[in-house]
Specification:
Length: about 375
C-alpha cells in the first residue's frame, strides 16, 4: 500500500531544523529542500531526490547528512547505504544536543532514558555504531560501550533502572515542593520557545549571571533565583528548559518529572522572541505543551523579548493589538522592568487570580 504525505509549508519548522543543526556544533555546507508527496517504503524520498543528494554529496563530501524528514529505521539504513555517510534525523540531532548540554545528574538521567527509549525499537543488530549515553558526547561517538553490542534485554533493564531513579528523584522533588508551598513563597516560572531570551530575562530580574548563549537548548536544567518585588517580599523566579514544536515524545516523557516541577508555579512568564517570524506559531506551540502537561490553567504573562532588533514600530503595534493588555520592557536595558515587577507584585498578592493573561514586551 502506497503512503502519501500531505504537504504543509511550515517555515518555522525549516528554521528550527537549521538552528538545531548549528546548536549541535555542525557546520552547514549545503541545503536541499524537497517536497515529498509519496513516501518511498525503502528510502522515504523519491529516486530522483535520493540521486540529487548523492550527487551533492560527491561534490561537497559531507561527513554527515541531517534530514528533517521522519525516517523509519529502514529508511535511515537504506539512505546510509546509498549516500555512504551517517544520516541523522531531527530526533538524533535533538538527542545529541540534550546529551551535550545536560549538566545535573537528573538531567543526564532524563536524556539517557529518552534516548534509549527512542533507540530500542530502532535497534536491529549490527549497524550504525552508537555509543552508550554514559559517554562524554552525544549520539555520534565518544567513549562507552557500543549500543549495537548490547541486547535489547540489556537496554530494557537499563531503561527500568533509569525510570526507578527518576521516580525516586520525582518523589524527592515532591517533598521539596510541599516544603516550599508551606513556606508561602510566590513562584514565577519563565517558559517559552527555546532561544527566546529566558535566561537573559532571569538575569535582568534577579541580577544573576546565568549563562546566556544564542543557541537552541542552552538551558536544560531548571535554575531558580530569588527576586524582591518590593521591600522584604521575596519571589522565586525559575528558568526552565525551552520548548520546541514537535519534540520527540520520548523526551517529553523523560522530562515529565521536570515539567511536574512547574505545577507549583503561581505565574508563568511566557517569553517570546518578537524579532522572529511566526510569533503566533511559537506561542501556540508553548501553550500546546502546557496543555499536554495540564498546566494551561496557571496564569501567564506573554513576554515579547528582543524588540531592540525590530526597526519597524508597526510590527510592535500589531503585536500589542493582537495581544492586548500589553506592557513593554527591555530586559537588556532595564526599561520597564519596574512595571513588570509591579505586575508580579500584584499577582503575588492574589495568586489565585483568574484574570486574563497580560502581555509584556521585552528586549533581549
Amino acid at each position: 500500500m502506497e503512503r502519501y504525505l500531505a504537504w504543509q509549508e511550515n517555515p518555522q519548522d525549516d528554521f528550527d531544523f537549521i538552528e538545531l543543526v548549528l546548536a549541535d556544533s555542525l557546520s552547514v555546507c549545503g541545503i536541499l529542500k524537497f517536497r515529498v508527496r509519496r513516501i518511498s517504503p525503502k528510502t522515504f524520498f523519491g529516486d530522483g531526490q535520493v540521486r540529487r543528494v548523492e550527487e551533492a554529496g560527491l561534490a561537497l563530501k559531507p561527513d554527515i547528512i541531517a534530514t528533517n524528514a521522519q525516517l523509519s529505521p529502514v529508511h535511515q539504513r537504506n539512505l546510509e547505504d546509498r549516500w555512504k555517510v551517517d544520516v541523522l534525523t531531527r530526533a538524533d540531532v535533538i538527542f545529541d544536543i540534550f546529551a551535550k548540554n545536560a549538566v545535573t545528574a537528573e538531567g543526564k538521567l532524563q536524556v539517557e532514558l529518552a534516548r534509549l527509549t527512542y533507540i530500542l525499537p530502532r535497534l536491529t543488530g549490527i549497524g550504525k555504531e552508537l555509543t552508550d549515553p554514559g559517554g562524554d558526547v552525544g549520539t555520534r561517538g565518544g567513549p562507552g560501550e557500543k549500543l549495537t553490542a548490547l541486547t535489547k534485554d540489556q537496554i530494557r533493564r537499563r531503561i527500568r533502572l533509569l525510570e526507578n531513579r527518576i521516580e525516586h528523584t520525582r518523589q524527592v522533588r515532591e517533598l521539596r515542593r510541599k516544603k516550599r508551598k508551606k513556606a508561602g513563597l510566590f513562584n514565577v516560572s519563565l517558559i517559552g520557545y527555546t532561544n527566546s531570551g529566558k535566561s537573559s530575562l532571569l538575569n535582568a530580574l534577579t541580577k544573576s549571571k546565568v549563562q546566556v548563549d544564542d543557541r537552541y537548548f542552552t538551558t536544560l536544567d531548571p535554575t531558580a533565583r530569588v527576586a524582591y518585588v518590593d521591600s522584604g517580599n521575596p519571589v522565586v523566579i525559575k528558568d526552565t528548559v525551552g520548548f520546541l514544536n514537535n519534540l520527540p515524545e520520548e523526551l517529553l516523557s523523560a522530562f515529565r518529572a521536570t515539567m511536574e516541577e512547574l505545577e507549583e508555579t503561581n505565574l508563568f512568564l511566557l517569553v517570546v522572541d518578537a524579532s522572529r517570524e511566526n510569533v503566533d506559531f511559537r506561542i501556540a506551540s508553548v501553550i500546546q505543551i502546557l496543555e499536554q502537561f495540564s498546566l494551561s490553567e496557571i496564569p501567564r504573562i506573554i513576554v515579547f523579548n528582543k524588540v531592540d532588533l525590530i526597526d519597524d514600530p508597526r510590527h510592535l503595534n500589531l503585536l500589542s493589538e493582537k495581544y492586548p493588555n500589553s506592557v513593554f520592557v527591555s530586559a537588556r536595558r532595564g526599561d520597564g522592568l519596574g512595571k513588570l515587577f509591579e505586575i508580579v507584585k500584584s499577582k503575588s498578592r492574589s495568586p489565585s487570580s483568574k484574570e486574563k493573561p497580560a502581555v509584556i514586551r521585552a528586549d533581549r
